[in-house]
């Protein structure tokens, strides 16, 4: 039995459904009237004011009446197909009919589009209709006829909310109906016409707001039908209203007091929305009366804000007061103004205030701020409303579209859906689709279309009304703005059409308040079928809006600065600037020089420079890629017309450039280049000449291919690599056979060629014997003579820091013997090395040494023979105990070392030169595993249990971390369970180590910036609990969060981190994780790319609160990073939260905690935070932080970036105040300190010139020239690039071109020109709304944005 | 590849050639001297010498004209100094200056910047 008392008999804002007809009261007469009209006319247009109950009259009145047999029609059964036109009327109609006729929507849709009589055909051909004149019918026997008759039904088609044909722009645009609208209306009218003519039981009912009646004339034939059969829903009389209130309560077993009924009837005012307001108030009263458990009375009416408390009878006052006092203050304030028409207002506003709390309770793992929740709600409701001919009406929109307009990276469709969920709950049904008990309705998808339940909400909720009006104002301002924008666009973006200062300020205010984004522009753009195109167009439009405002603002910056700050301040700060300003300011408009013509000229000049033999291929690569970006297809076309040698060199350099820009590059360009390079090699090798060139290029390219294949594993690359190193072998053989080919630098290339072949090639015993036979002095024959020619004593191969005698020939020989498995000969090579005094080979930090040889022994399956070599090493060098040998080999084979950079960019490292052979890691993974296994066996043999357990603990951890890094680097599936298993073993061993032993301090080598190392000392315990692996020049100090997560997951913090020093290891790890390298060349391409997530950083902050020693953990670095990341994703609230947690007064200790690379990162974060604060409008805080920098040049950097970002992003004149600050700081700086050496990195004038050129007005250009000229000639080119880049970005290519001085070298001229083309590419992409090549932009701008504050 | 075959890298000998051309006859050889150092990244060292050469030959106006536009005060001083020094060299006859004169061009005449071809 159903518990009737739990059913609310009132519908709130939504209309009555057929099932609720029992409670639908007060309209008996009208139901009879419309029934009889429809019987007669077969068509009926039900009109009435909004909120008069048109839909309810049909659904809860007409339909149940018909089904109950009060409708005289051909059959007793009824089938109803109802739909709303919404945005796709044909589809919606088809969907409704498909359900009725149990057919596919698509089939019906095709049918409907076929012709206007198709609906009648559909019906008459269905089982619902019997054509008694039909022969087939007459031939049926009686039972069959009976069966048919049972199925026969009349058809009622309901077009609810007919006004949507006029309110949705998809249906009605520019005062004319869309094709789909016409199809549906014609179908409806034609169906009615045929039904009448042929007396077919098909009935059409439409409901429409009466204020749209005039617009119906847009459809031919419709006004006639309306004139023929229309029903206007009258307002309810007081008697009927009483029925509406009382009877549903009685029928559902609820109780309602007479005094409440009287009061409600009394309170109902004349005007619109009478019924929705009443229904909504009743549903709220029912809820307030404990879901109808109590008798609904005045006190409940007061609780929902329908009447003031002082009008309550005395006996109800205490109950109300007790309840009222329990409310939070914010809710109480809504009761200051009460009334029946305020119930909606109060209800919706309370939900608005509480939505975030409700959300955070429902989704405790995904909390959200109150501000974000309010923003989502406000934007959603203003999206769901629009002003149409001065009427606020509903505007349906999908969840995805709304999320696009909210436009915040952290606010996904899921978040929006969750926040809105409160408005979809039963009892709060303000937004459709409602949430019901059906689990499918709990979450909505991005495609779900949302809709306000009833327009009365818009009229009665003041907040929504304000939002809607403000949105309308934004929109109308946009229309105004668009007119100006279009004029400017049509004039070819001429500066004559830019905005003058008055309108500019007006539209800037609009821009700042409205914050238009792609979603918003799309909302108001012309309707387009193709969504992708609509998005692209909107992106282009948004870019144009920004550009128009920026350009306009650039025209008047000085005027503006004067208006806002007065000339006094500027004049006192920098006399030169003031002088220029006071001498008259005007805009130097050279833009008429026609950018397009200029860019063509610049490109053709660049192309000429590309032909110069005095410009290196390495320089030409980037301009070539920029040209490809400007004109797709040009790169290959250019390379194909070069002769094969030039083509080969340049293709290899371009391929390298692509990898440096993005090591994970997967573009087609890369494969095109590879194929071209391969075919060039083929051609050149077949000529059998120019072997030194070929050897060099083969080494260069196989190095790049190996790098590419490491980060982007592919069988094709691997195959190509194998084929090319086989060619290297063949070329090496040519050299060794032809002594006359010797030249001083070739032996080193031969060594590397042999190493590449051994690592990747088809190596056979026969080939190995051939080569050894040719040049090994340890073999019979002529080998010694060749060896002496290519590897004479006194010739050196640089091997990292140490030169190896004999051109490193013995290491090469040892490698070849190792591949054969002839360890006796390997030892013979070692003996020679030792005897010639090259002890460093066995004890020093070299790029290549015995470890490579051991790895080759493993690679070629001679594992069992390695013992001899290890024994020899141990016997001859006491520091080389087997454990050390294996540990070093394991470290070298874990993953691709950052030192590989030296093979790609020769001479990039400061003190280490030569090739570094990474065969241990690149040959095959089995080498690492086998070395690790054998190392672990050796560890097990250690007699002292504590040492054995500790060494195993570190090794297991090392193995897990290395495997994880290797898989991450290569994009392979991470085998987490195996790695966690290893970490568990590590922990198990660690727990068995004796406590004293853990206190022992041991030295470790850590890699640092470039080829630098740091020798540090750590307690054994700390080395293990460091939340990563560190030790060894060839590996990083930071890899991933694998170990940290493992510790966290297993709740081991308290066990392992007991002292502040223990927690300090976590801090050190964070510093290492963010050890960004200052220069782009060796930046991302050779850096560690595993980003530490916000969650990990937040977890560390939690530790500071929950861990007994947590307070000792320095939070500043973490807060800085989190603040900047939050600001970057526009989450200002969190940004400010972390900023406030940052200790601004005493952060020097955090800044100076580590060395210069870590400190540089800290200072960059600090600078970024200044910028973010300024962008968020917190100017005081931003300036306060900028002043915290120690030195004037550091402060100047902060101000430059603040000025630049707020100028570029917001066109905010405060930029000029910051610029003033830079000038002010400049007064005390001796710029000569920046002239030489590494100090050039802290010469902020390059950034300042860039900024001033970006702003671009004439006085600033002149000022910029003052700084420019004072840069000494040796450093001038950097300033030239800043200037060219800034001016080109500002949009004047002609001036950018003329800023290139004639004193440059061709290399510099090419680079400067390519900067202009690069900017032209960006502008083109921005205008097309199709931003590409972001990795290239990041690469080029890296050094401008990341400041190397403390060059060592 | 040997440095001489790879014209894309710095060719130190070009400075010497260009300076020699200018000391010989700046009026006649100026065009060729500038073409010679076009792709030299540190060409200002050579241009100072060009100024010097003009000054030695008595053309102080041309000597000053060699200084590019928009240069720093320090660089400008260098050009002025080179002009004055050249002018003095052409004028001074006193014997005590002989040693100075002889050492003056030491870096361009006697100490040549040889480079390691293997790098």
Structure description:
The complex is a heterodimer of chains A (1352) and B (119). Chain A is mostly helical. The radius of gyration of chain A is 40 Å and the shape is elongated. Chain A starts with 27 loop residues before the first helix and ends in a 7-residue tail after the last helix. Chain B has 119 residues and is mainly α. In chain B, helix 1 (13-24) packs antiparallel against helix 2 (26-37) and helix 2 (26-37) runs antiparallel to helix 3. Chain B is globular. The relative contact order of chain B is 0.13. The A-B interface holds A 612-617, 619, 692-693, 696, 743-745, 748, 907, 913, 1232, 1265, 1268-1274, 1276, 1301, 1303, 1305-1308 and B 1-2, 6-9, 38-44, 68-75, 117-119.
Give a quick rundown of the structure.
With 1352 residues, chain A is mainly alpha-helical.
Strand percentage of chain A: 5-15%
Classify the oligomer.
heterodimer
Major β-sheet annotation of chain B: none
Unreliable segments of 5+ consecutive residues of chain B:
none
Mean pLDDT of chain A: 88
Number of helices of chain B: 7
Considering residues with a beta carbon less than 8 A from a beta carbon on another chain, report the largest interface and each chain's count.
Answer: A-B, 32 and 24 residues
What structural category do the secondary elements of chain B indicate? mainly alpha
The largest β sheet of chain A comes out as: 5 strands, parallel
Cα-based radius of gyration of chain B, to the nearest Å: 15 Å
Shape summary of chain A: elongated
List the secondary-structure elements of chain B in sequence, H or E.
HHHHHHH
Give the helix tally of chain A.
Answer: 67
């Amino acid at each position: 039995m159903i518990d009737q008392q739990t059913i609310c008999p009132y519908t709130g804002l939504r209309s009555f459904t057929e099932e609720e007809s029992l409670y639908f009261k007060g309209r008996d007469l009208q139901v009879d009237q419309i029934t009889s009209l429809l019987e007669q006319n077969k068509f009926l247009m039900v009109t009435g004011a909004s909120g008069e109950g048109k839909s309810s009259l049909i659904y809860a009145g007409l339909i149940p009446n018909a089904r109950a047999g009060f409708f005289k029609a051909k059959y007793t059964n009824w089938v109803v197909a109802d739909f709303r036109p919404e945005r796709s009327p044909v589809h919606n109609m088809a969907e409704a009919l498909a359900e009725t006729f149990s057919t596919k929507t698509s089939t019906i849709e095709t049918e409907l589009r076929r012709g206007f009589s198709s609906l009648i055909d559909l019906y008459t051909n269905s089982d619902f209709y019997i054509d008694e004149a039909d022969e087939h019918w007459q031939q049926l026997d009686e039972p069959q006829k009976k069966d048919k008759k049972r199925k026969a039904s009349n058809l009622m088609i309901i077009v609810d909310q007919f006004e949507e044909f006029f309110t949705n722009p998809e249906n009605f645009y520019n005062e004319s109906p869309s094709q789909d609208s016409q199809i549906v209306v014609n179908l409806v009218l034609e169906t009615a016409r045929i039904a009448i003519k042929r007396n077919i039981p098909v009935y059409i009912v439409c409901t429409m707001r009466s204020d749209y009646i005039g617009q119906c004339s847009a459809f031919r034939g419709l006004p006639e039908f309306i004139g023929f059969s229309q029903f206007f829903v009258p307002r309810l009389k007081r008697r009927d209203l009483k029925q509406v209130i009382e009877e549903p309560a009685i029928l559902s077993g609820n109780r309602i007091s007479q005094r409440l009924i009287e009061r409600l009837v009394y309170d109902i005012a004349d005007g619109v929305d009478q019924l929705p307001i009443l229904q909504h108030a009743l549903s709220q009263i029912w809820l307030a009366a404990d879901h109808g458990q109590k008798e609904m009375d005045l006190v409940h009416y007061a609780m929902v804000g329908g009447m003031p408390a002082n009008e309550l009878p005395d006996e109800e006052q205490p109950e109300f007061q007790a309840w009222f006092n329990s409310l939070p203050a914010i809710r109480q304030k809504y009761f200051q103004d009460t009334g029946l028409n305020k119930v909606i207002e109060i209800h919706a506003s309370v939900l608005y205030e509480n939505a975030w709390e409700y959300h955070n309770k429902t989704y405790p793992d995904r909390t959200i701020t109150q501000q974000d929740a309010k923003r989502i709600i406000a934007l959603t409701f203003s999206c769901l409303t629009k002003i149409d001919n001065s009427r606020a009406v509903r505007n349906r929109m999908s969840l995805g579209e709304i999320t696009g307009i909210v436009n915040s990276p952290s606010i996904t469709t899921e978040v929006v859906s969750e926040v809105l969920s409160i408005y979809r709950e039963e009892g709060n049904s303000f937004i459709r689709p409602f949430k019901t008990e059906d689990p499918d309705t709990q979450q909505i998808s991005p495609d779900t279309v949302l809709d306000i339940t009833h327009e009365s909400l818009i009229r009665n909720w003041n907040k929504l009304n304000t939002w809607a009006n403000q949105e309308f104002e934004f929109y109308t301002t946009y229309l105004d703005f668009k007119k100006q924008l279009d004029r400017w666009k049509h004039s070819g973006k001429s500066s004559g059409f830019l905005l003058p200062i008055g309108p500019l300020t007006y539209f800037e205010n609009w821009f700042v308040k409205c914050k238009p984004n792609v979603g918003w522009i799309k909302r108001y753009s012309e309707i387009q079928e193709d969504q992708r195109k609509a998005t692209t167009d909107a992106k282009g439009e948004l870019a144009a809006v920004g550009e128009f405002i920026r350009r306009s603002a650039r025209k008047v910056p000085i005027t503006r600065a004067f208006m806002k700050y007065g000339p006094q301040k500027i004049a006192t700060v920098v006399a030169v600037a003031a002088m220029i300003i006071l001498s008259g300011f005007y805009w130097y408009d050279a833009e008429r020089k026609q950018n397009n013509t200029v860019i063509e000229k610049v490109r053709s000049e660049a192309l000429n420079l590309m032909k110069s033999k005095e410009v290196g291929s390495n320089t030409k690569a980037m301009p070539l890629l920029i040209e490809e970006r400007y004109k797709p297809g040009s790169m290959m076309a250019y390379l194909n017309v070069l002769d094969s040698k030039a083509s080969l060199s340049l293709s290899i350099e371009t391929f390298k450039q692509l990898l440096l820009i993005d090591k994970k590059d997967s573009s087609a360009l890369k494969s095109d280049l590879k194929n071209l390079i391969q075919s060039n090699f083929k051609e050149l090798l077949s000529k059998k000449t120019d072997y030194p060139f070929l050897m060099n290029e083969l080494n260069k390219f196989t190095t790049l291919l190996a790098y590419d294949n490491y980060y982007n594993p592919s069988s094709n690359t691997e195959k190509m690599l194998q084929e090319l190193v086989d060619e290297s072998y063949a070329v090496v053989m040519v050299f060794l056979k032809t002594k006359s080919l010797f030249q001083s630098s070739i032996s080193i290339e031969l060594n590397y060629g042999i190493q590449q072949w051994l690592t990747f090639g088809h190596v056979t015993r026969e080939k190995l014997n051939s080569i050894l036979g040719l040049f090994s002095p340890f073999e019979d024959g002529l080998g010694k003579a060749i060896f002496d020619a290519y590897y004479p004593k006194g010739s050196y191969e640089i091997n990292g820091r140490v030169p190896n005698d004999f051109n490193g020939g013995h290491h090469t020989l040892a490698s070849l013997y190792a591949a054969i498995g002839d360890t006796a000969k390997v030892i013979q090579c070692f003996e020679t090395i030792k005897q010639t005094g090259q002890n460093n080979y066995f004890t020093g930090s070299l790029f290549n040494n015995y470890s490579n040889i051991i790895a080759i022994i493993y690679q070629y399956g001679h594992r069992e023979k390695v013992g001899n070599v290890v024994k020899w090493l141990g016997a001859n060098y006491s520091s080389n105990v087997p454990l050390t040998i294996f540990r070093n080999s394991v470290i070298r084979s874990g993953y691709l070392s950052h030192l590989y950079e030296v093979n790609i960019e020769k001479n990039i490292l400061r003190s280490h030169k030569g090739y570094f052979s990474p065969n241990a890691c690149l040959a095959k993974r089995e080498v690492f595993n086998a070395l690790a296994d054998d190392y672990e066996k050796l560890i097990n043999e250690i007699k002292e249990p504590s040492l054995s357990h500790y060494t195993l603990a570190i090794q297991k951890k090392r193995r897990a971390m290395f495997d994880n890094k290797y898989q991450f680097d290569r994009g392979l599936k991470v085998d987490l369970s195996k790695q966690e298993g290893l970490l568990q073993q590590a922990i198990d061993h660690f727990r068995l180590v004796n406590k004293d032993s853990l206190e022992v301090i041991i030295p470790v080598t850590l890699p640092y910036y470039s080829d630098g190392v740091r020798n540090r000392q750590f307690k054994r315990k700390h080395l293990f609990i460091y939340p990563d692996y560190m030790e060894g020049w060839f590996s990083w100090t930071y890899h991933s969060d694998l170990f940290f997560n493992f510790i966290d997951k297993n709740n081991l913090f308290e066990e392992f981190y007991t002292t502040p020093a223990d927690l300090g290891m976590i801090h050190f790890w964070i510093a290492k994780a963010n050890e960004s390298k200052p220069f782009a060349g060796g930046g991302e391409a050779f850096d560690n790319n595993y980003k530490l997530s916000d969650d990990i950083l937040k977890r560390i902050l939690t530790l500071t609160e929950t861990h007994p020693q947590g307070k000792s953990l320095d939070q500043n670095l973490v807060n800085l990073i989190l603040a900047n990341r939050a600001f970057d994703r526009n989450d200002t609230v969190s940004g400010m939260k972390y900023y406030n947690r940052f200790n601004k007064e005493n952060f020097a200790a955090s800044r100076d905690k580590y060395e210069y690379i870590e400190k540089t990162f800290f200072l960059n974060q600090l600078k970024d935070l200044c910028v973010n604060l300024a962008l968020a409008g917190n100017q005081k805080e931003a300036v306060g932080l900028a002043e915290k920098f120690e030195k004037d040049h550091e402060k100047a950097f902060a101000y430059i970036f603040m000025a630049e970002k707020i100028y570029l992003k917001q066109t905010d004149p405060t930029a000029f105040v910051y610029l003033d600050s830079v000038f002010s700081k400049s007064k005390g700086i001796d710029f000569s300190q920046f002239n030489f050496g590494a100090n050039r990195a802290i010469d902020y004038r390059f950034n300042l010139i860039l900024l001033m050129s970006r702003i671009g007005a004439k006085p600033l250009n002149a000022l910029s020239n003052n700084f420019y000229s004072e840069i000494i000639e040796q450093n001038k080119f950097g300033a030239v690039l800043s200037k060219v880049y800034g001016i080109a970005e500002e949009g004047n290519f002609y001036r950018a071109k003329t800023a290139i001085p004639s004193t440059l070298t061709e290399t510099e001229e090419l680079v400067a020109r390519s900067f202009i083309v690069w900017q032209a590419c960006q502008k083109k992409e921005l205008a097309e709304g199709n931003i590409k090549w972001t990795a290239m932009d990041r690469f080029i701008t890296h050094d401008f944005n990341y400041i190397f504050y403390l060059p060592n | 590849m040997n440095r001489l075959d790879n014209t894309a890298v710095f060719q130190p000998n070009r400075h010497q050639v260009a300076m020699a051309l200018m000391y010989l006859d700046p009026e006649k050889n100026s065009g060729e001297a500038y073409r010679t150092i076009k792709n030299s990244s540190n060409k200002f060292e050579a241009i100072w010498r060009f100024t010097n050469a003009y000054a030695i030959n008595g053309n102080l106006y041309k000597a000053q004209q060699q200084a590019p536009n928009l240069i720093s005060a320090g660089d400008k001083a260098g050009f002025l100094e080179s002009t004055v020094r050249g002018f003095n060299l052409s004028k001074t006859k006193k014997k005590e200056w002989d040693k100075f004169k002889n050492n003056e061009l030491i870096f361009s005449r006697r100490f040549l910047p040889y480079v390691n071809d293997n790098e």
